[in-house]
């Protein structure tokens, strides 16, 4: 069984300290997020995670994208829409993907970009690679205040325009070496989202993508599970530790060829689970859908956790997976 993360990792922004860093800062080329990225990558690799992320250290999942997308802006960490949303001529996260890969390679030569996540219908054994993450068009739309250009009652137009922007970003990330693209759509479980429109948007992103596509949805999924299975994605990544009721929906389900990202450690507390607790969730998942259909990960991003807790949770998860294999 492979292991991954949902995405975000606790980040500490570092002011320039050394003479070299201070010199770079004076030229405007010092990146205060770079040490946090390297720390996030080192922790994931050292914990033994197979499919790692860049730690999403540049801000919350909304502002990372809204800050750069034409037609959007961010104030007090909240996104606003005030113009026509159009694709970018440059990538938002591709350089972080490249830095993630280079940092991971320094610690472990096993990290590569030429290995496919899937070997036929199964996960590739001994896979080590990078995940590219985008915030989903529906979640970005429903989290933003519409101030201009679009009609507040016609959110579908915003979702579709964002889908084209994010499709382009997915291609940038794929070219930068991402072995899988993950769309984060936590709003799909809130009851606020139009699931048909969300599905159409994901379908646009999936077109011509060469790497597998994953979608992360947290929260209680009982009401929307059948709808989620209709999305054109290879992996559905969900929360199970903090939402044990979600395990029931795995019983007698037809996955329609999809794999499940099985959230097995709780991202909402610093309390680190025991191996037995993680094993209980994984075993229930294995019982319902089989080991081959599972990739183990935390419930959601770990941005709000302490670095110690985040690392320990990843470590106990990896140890449990090894213990069960
Ligand atoms: Zn989540």
Structural descriptors:
325 residues, alpha/beta, TIM Barrel, eight-stranded parallel beta sheet, three-stranded mixed beta sheet, globular, binds zinc ion
Plain-language structure description:
With 325 residues, this protein is of the alpha/beta class. The chain has one domain (2-324): TIM Barrel. Helix content is 37%, strand content 15%. The chain has helices at residues 19-27, 34-47, 63-66, 94-107, 137-143, 155-176, 195-206, 225-228, 275-289, 307-324, and strands spanning 2-3, 51-52, 72-75, 78-81, 118-119, 122-123, 129-135, 145-146, 180-184, 213-217, 235-239, 259-263, 294-297. The strands form three sheets. The chain has an eight-stranded parallel beta sheet with strand order 1-13-12-11-10-9-7-2. The chain has a three-stranded mixed beta sheet with strand order 3-4-8, with helices on one face. Helix 2 packs across helix 4, helix 4 (94-107) runs parallel beside helix 6 and helix 9 crosses helix 10. The radius of gyration is 19 Å and the shape is globular. Bound molecules: zinc ion. Zinc ion binds at residues 6, 186, 216, 218, 300.
């Amino acid at each position: 069984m492979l292991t991954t993360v949902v995405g975000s990792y606790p980040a500490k922004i570092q002011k320039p300290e050394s003479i070299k860093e201070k010199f770079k800062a004076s030229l405007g080329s010092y990146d205060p997020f770079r040490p946090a990225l390297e720390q996030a990558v080192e922790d994931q690799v050292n914990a033994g995670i197979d499919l790692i992320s860049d730690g999403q250290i540049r801000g919350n999942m909304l502002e990372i994208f809204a800050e750069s997308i034409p037609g959007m802006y961010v104030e007090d960490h909240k996104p606003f829409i005030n113009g026509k949303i159009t694709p970018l001529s440059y990538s938002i996260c591709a350089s972080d993907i490249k830095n993630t890969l280079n940092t991971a390679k320094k610690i472990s030569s096993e990290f590569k970009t030429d290995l496919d996540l899937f070997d036929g219908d199964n996960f590739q054994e001994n896979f080590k690679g990078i995940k590219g993450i985008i915030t989903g068009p529906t979640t970005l739309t429903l989290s933003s205040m519409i101030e201009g250009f679009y009609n507040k009652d016609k959110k579908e137009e915003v979702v579709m325009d964002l889908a084209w922007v994010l499709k382009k970003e997915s291609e940038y990330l794929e070219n930068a070496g991402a072995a899988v693209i993950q769309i984060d759509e936590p709003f799909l479980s809130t009851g606020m989202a139009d699931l048909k429109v969300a599905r159409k948007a994901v379908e646009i992103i999936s077109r011509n993508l060469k790497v597998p596509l994953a979608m992360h949805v947290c929260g209680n999924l009982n009401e929307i599970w059948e709808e989620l299975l209709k999305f054109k994605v290879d992996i559905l990544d969900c929360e199970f530790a903090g939402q044990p009721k979600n395990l029931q929906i795995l019983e007698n389900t037809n996955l329609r060829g999809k794999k499940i990202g099985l959230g097995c450690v709780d991202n909402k507390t610093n309390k680190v689970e025991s191996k037995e607790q993680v094993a209980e969730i994984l075993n229930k998942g294995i019982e319902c859908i089989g080991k081959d259909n599972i990739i183990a990960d935390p419930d959601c991003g770990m941005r709000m956790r302490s670095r110690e807790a985040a690392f320990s949770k990843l470590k106990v998860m990896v140890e449990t997976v090894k213990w069960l294999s």
